[in-house]
């Protein structure tokens, strides 16, 4: 298993995984929309996308967005998307992708990596906690749909 930063060479495969990831979270399938979205993030340099390769097959991906911490006056990273194909789970891809997120934070002098996951996604929660992430008990998160 190998983790590399995705490039436009990986665009179609990442878009397939991204669309599958979205449907995992109950969004309607939309490959064309997924392709456009991922393409724009790559072209504009608005996110970092990493892929997990197993025998030259992309079996998982992770997308992080740069954010900033005003109190810490540093960059931070939002680990927004992490997905491994079901047939390849349990082989270490998720763990290696999270390690890549940590390394990105170190390499860019970030203050932290933050993420959120569904309350029911206990498998992901175990992974994140094993990797040193702490569940936030001090703050509430709010959303405003517009």
Automatic annotation (TrEMBL):
Pfam families registered for this protein in UniProt: Acetyltransf_1
Keywords: Acyltransferase, Transferase
Single GO MF descriptor: acyltransferase activity, transferring groups other than amino-acyl groups
CDD domains in the record: NAT_SF (cd04301)
Coiled coil segments of this chain: none
Gene3D superfamilies: 3.40.630.30
Domain N-acetyltransferase: 7-146
Name the UniProt record assigns to this protein: Acetyltransferase (GNAT) family protein
């Amino acid at each position: 298993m190998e983790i590399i930063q995705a490039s436009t060479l990986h665009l179609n495969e990442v878009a397939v995984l991204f669309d599958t990831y979205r449907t995992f979270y109950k969004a309607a399938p939309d490959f064309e929309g997924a392709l456009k979205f991922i393409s724009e993030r790559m072209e504009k340099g608005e996110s970092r996308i990493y892929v997990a390769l197993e025998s030259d097959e992309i079996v998982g991906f992770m997308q992080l967005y740069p954010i900033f911490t005003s109190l810490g006056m540093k960059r931070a990273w939002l680990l927004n998307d992490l997905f491994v194909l079901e047939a390849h789970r349990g082989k270490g891809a998720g763990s290696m992708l999270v390690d890549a997120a940590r390394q990105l934070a170190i390499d860019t002098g970030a203050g932290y990596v933050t993420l959120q996951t569904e309350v029911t996604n206990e498998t992901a929660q175990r992974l994140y906690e094993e990797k040193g992430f702490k569940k936030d008990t001090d703050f509430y998160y709010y959303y405003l749909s517009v």
